[in-house]
Every structure is written in structure tokens, then in C-alpha cells.
Amino acid sequence: AQKITQTQPGMFVQEKEAVTLDCTYDTSDPSYGLFWYKQPSSGEMIFLIYQGSYDQQNATEGRYSLNFQKARKSANLVISASQLGDSAMYFCAMREVSEGAQKLVFGQGTRLTINP
Amino acid sequence: EPEVTQTPSHQVTQMGQEVILRCVPISNHLYFYWYRQILGQKVEFLVSFYNNEISEKSEIFDDQFSVERPDGSNFTLKIRSTKLEDSAMYFCASSEDGDFTDTQYFGPGTRLTVL
């Protein structure tokens, strides 16, 4: 079974609109962390936002927020007021204590395109 | 802002040759990692390194691969005898500690092309 599932291979959004990128995860471990990374066409991996399994509130970082629904095992990334520079691949990833907590397991990614 | 750096940005090699990919992690970080991303695919974990030894590795990280911290700043990934299927983007990452809450910061990657 996939640990991280991103069901949207591609999304197209108009500039200034909000966008939600979906991520569901599979774990029986009570202790885990969820991360979102952005990969522009230049190739680097840029950390965006983190949510811990014990966090009571949804994480926010500037225009990024995480819609964390623990019972549904989903951790969707919300980008408000999208900009042309938001066009990139977006990866959801997880670290679990039971898996040694070292490795990040990534989803397949969602390619986001912002249209002017 | 401190960042992870990697050299070279692009490496082209012949099948069967040895390559060494270099990384300088963020200076106060204690855990180091290598990941790879085959073109168009997801990022895959290779190995983590702490206190001068491998702390975890994936099934991809076979005997052809090795890692080393040759001095106080560099962290290297060696592929002994490259295969065509080793062509990928290789990312180095580092984190302050190995806890599941800790963020891993990635370098810009080295694109390895095996001919």
C-alpha cells in the first residue's frame, strides 16, 4: 500500500485564486510528521510547511496552510492568493517513528500550473 | 540563511565508472541524508548518516553505494560502478536531529547522467 497518496497529477488554477492540493497518508504509528515540499522547474526541493501528528492546530506559514484531518488521514496543502511563481511540483512526505524516523517517504507529487 | 550545497550540479559519466557526489550540509546539523529522483518519478530515500555511521538505508542502497564524511564539512555519496539506471537527480539533505518532527533541508541536487 502507498504510504503517501497524491491523487491529483496536475492542477490548473487562475492567478490570485486559492488552491488545495490533496494528500492522504497511511500509517498505524501515532507519532509521525507530515511535510510539504515545492520543486520548481529548476529542480531544487524547497520546504514549505510541517504538521506533527500531535499538533492540535493546523500549521500555517504565510500563504501556505495545512488542512490536517487526522481521522481521515489527510493533510491537504492550501495556497491562498496563488501567484505565477507558485507553478511547480508539490510533494507531500511523511516521517514515522516506527520506521526509524529517519527517512521521508514521498508521494508522487502534483504539478500545479498558475495561469495569468 | 544557511543552506545545503551540492557539487557538481550536473555529472555525466560512462557506465561502469565511479562517481562521487559531494554535499556540504548546514553547519549545525547532525543528520545527513541522500535521496534520488529518477526523471518524472517521486523522490526516494537512499540513506541516512549520523555520528559517522549509517543509521538507516533503503533496499536501493546496495553494495555499489557508499557514504562518507571525509572531514568536518563534506558529506559524499560514492557509486562504485555506475549503471544506466543510476541516472537520476541526487539530493543531499540535512536536519538538526533525527526526530520525526524535524525538518530535512535539501540541497539543489546533482543531476547524474550515465551513458
Task: Set down the secondary structure blueprint.
The complex is a heterodimer of chains A (116) and B (115).
Chain A: E1 4-5, E2 10-14, E3 19-21, E4 24-25, E5 32-39, E6 46-52, E7 60-61, E8 64-69, E9 74-79, E10 88-96, E11 105-106, E12 110-115
Parallel strand pairs in A: 2-12
Antiparallel strand pairs in A: 1-4, 3-9, 5-6, 5-10, 7-8, 8-9, 10-11, 10-12
Chain B: E1 5-7, E2 10-13, E3 19-24, E4 31-37, E5 43-50, E6 53-57, E7 65-68, E8 75-79, E9 88-95, E10 105-106, E11 110-114
Describe this structure in words.
The complex is a heterodimer of chains A (116) and B (115). Chain A is mostly beta strands and 116 residues long. Chain A is 0% helix and 50% strand. Chain A has no helices and twelve strands. In chain A, strand 8 and strand 9 form a beta hairpin. The radius of gyration of chain A is 14 Å and the shape is globular. The model of chain A has no long low-confidence stretch (mean pLDDT 93). Chain A binds chain B through residues 31-33, 35, 37, 42-47, 50, 52, 91, 93, 95-97, 100-109, and chain B through 31, 33, 35, 41-45, 48, 55-56, 58, 89, 91, 93, 98-109, 111.
